[in-house]
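Section 5: illustrative case.
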């Protein structure tokens, strides 16, 4: 497996290193809409993930953008959301779920849809760049903690990502290169 050298933030924001890639950015929506709006630190992290990959040339699929961080979620039916997100998963080159812990209790924020999308990504052979607290919190399921055993999973620590968004670019490059190598090896075999 080849490794991609780390890049600094100023290079990451102007490099176009992700040009041509389709990146599906996911994370909690339904359980992140509070009485006073969307969970602020989560919205900031998802917005940073979206802008980081976009500024590096990637095309982004995001329910958060389409649904305006929960403001327009009610305008979509469950059938529409399921079909849309599955279509995005089949089309994307990499899935980037943002799974935050709740600040008040340190428990992983509930996100049923994102966990379904993680299953789709794994079943479809899509690489995953998982942005969450490292090590993965105890409240996470065994399936989430062990996902790297059955799929291509890169981990990026949530707090480190918020401090240095270019870590996402490095991880996407590594994940998509690993996928290319696996496909190439299967074609040769």
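Designed sequence:
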């Amino acid at each position: 497996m080849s490794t991609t050298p780390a890049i600094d933030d100023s290079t990451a924001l102007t490099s176009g290193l992700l040009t041509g890639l389709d990146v599906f950015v996911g994370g909690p929506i339904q359980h992140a809409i509070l009485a006073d709006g969307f969970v602020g630190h989560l919205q900031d992290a998802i917005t940073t993930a979206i802008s980081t990959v976009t500024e590096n040339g990637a095309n982004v699929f995001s329910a958060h953008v389409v649904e305006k961080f929960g403001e327009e979620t009610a305008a979509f039916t469950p059938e529409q959301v399921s079909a849309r997100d599955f279509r995005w998963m089949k089309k994307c080159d990499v899935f980037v779920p943002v799974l935050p812990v709740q600040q008040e209790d340190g428990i992983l924020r509930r996100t049923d849809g994102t966990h379904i999308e993680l299953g789709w990504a794994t079943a479809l052979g899509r690489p995953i760049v998982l942005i969450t607290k490292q090590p993965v919190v105890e409240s996470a399921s065994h399936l989430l903690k062990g996902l790297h055993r059955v799929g291509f999973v890169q981990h990026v620590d949530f707090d480190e990502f918020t401090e240095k968004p270019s870590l996402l670019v490095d991880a996407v490059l590594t994940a998509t290169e690993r996928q290319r190598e696996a496909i190439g090896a299967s074609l040769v075999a």
